[in-house]
Amino acid sequence: MDTSRAPLHVTLISIGALVAFWSLAAFFSDDPSILPSPALVAAAIAQEAASGKLWLHMSWTLWRVIMAFIAAMTVGCALGIILGLAPRLNRWADPWVTVLLNLPALVIIVLCYLWIGLNEVAAIFAVALNKTAMVTVTIREGVRAMDRGVSDMARVYRMSPAKRLLHVIWPQLGPFVAASTRNGLAVIWKIVLVVEFLGRSNGVGFQIHLYFQLFDTAMVLAYALSFTAVMLLIEYMIVQRWERRANAWRAT
Q1: What is the DSSP string of 143-155?
Q2: Whole domain around residue 61: which residue ranges?
Q3: Does residue 8 fall inside a structural domain?
Q4: Alpha-carbon span 104 to 14, nearest angstrom
Q5: Domain of 204: which CATH number?
Q6: How many domains is the chain partitioned into structurally?
């Protein structure tokens, strides 16, 4: 049994306590323009959902999250494995990875828009580039932590590079890939909102920018919490289940 994850009833009670605290804070502030109540935000969500705007903008944001996530994980995993297996190459590439890891996301987004233009390619590329370095570092450390005895056995049996990757390297990297997935989704969707806030004409980030200009706090919270709920659903229904499977070997 995985004791690191809270049971469902504990999660629901915790969220209920958070909503109760929010309700009290909204009641005492007595200013919906600053802190609207949960009921007011729920009404705003229902209004946008009924009009179809909520689903349209959330689908655009989710599409960008998925595309950027796939790109970042693919490139980051490949680079991490290569750098982990090639120490000499890693010594030369490590400063590049460190610079990219510490470069502010806002700078990368602005530069991509300036160099590529205000389009979907720039938006997705900027988000993926922000996450690639983090995936690379995580997977590289996973390669370094592999059981060298298993790798030596693969060499003794003269396994091809493709078979070594599939049967020796990749299974041992499961927990590290799972960790990159969880962290990646948590970071990427936040960066996507910034990308949409700065230079797209649709998406949750664009709507937040719109209602920010109108000083409509309820609508800002409505879009932010709606997409947060979607990402939490993905976290609990998909990512955590896969992470448990990836870490199952630790219990054996």
Answers
A1: HHTS-HHHHHHHH
A2: 41-251
A3: no
A4: 33
A5: 1.10.3720.10
A6: 1
pLDDT at 159: 67
Decide if 139 contacts 78 (C-beta within 8 A): no
Is residue 34 domain-resident? Answer: no
Tens-digit pLDDT profile for residues 161-207: 677 766 667 777 777 888 888 888 888 888 999 999 988 888 999 99
Determine whether 193 is exposed, middle or buried from the number of CB atoms within 10 Å of its CB (0-12, 13-18, 19+).
Answer: buried
Whether residue 3 lies inside any domain: the answer is no
- Residues 19-48: tens digit of each pLDDT: 899 899 988 888 888 889 999 999 999 999
Asked whether residue 245 is assigned to any structural domain, the reply reads yes
The predicted structure's pLDDT at residue 149: 64
Q: Which parts of the chain fold into alpha helices (H)?
A: 8-29, 38-51, 53-85, 87-102, 105-116, 120-144, 148-156, 161-164, 170-172, 174-199, 204-213, 217-234, 240-246
Contacts of 230 by beta carbon, 8 Å cutoff, 6+ apart: 58, 62
Q: What angle do CA 146, 144, 173 make, to 5 degrees?
A: 50
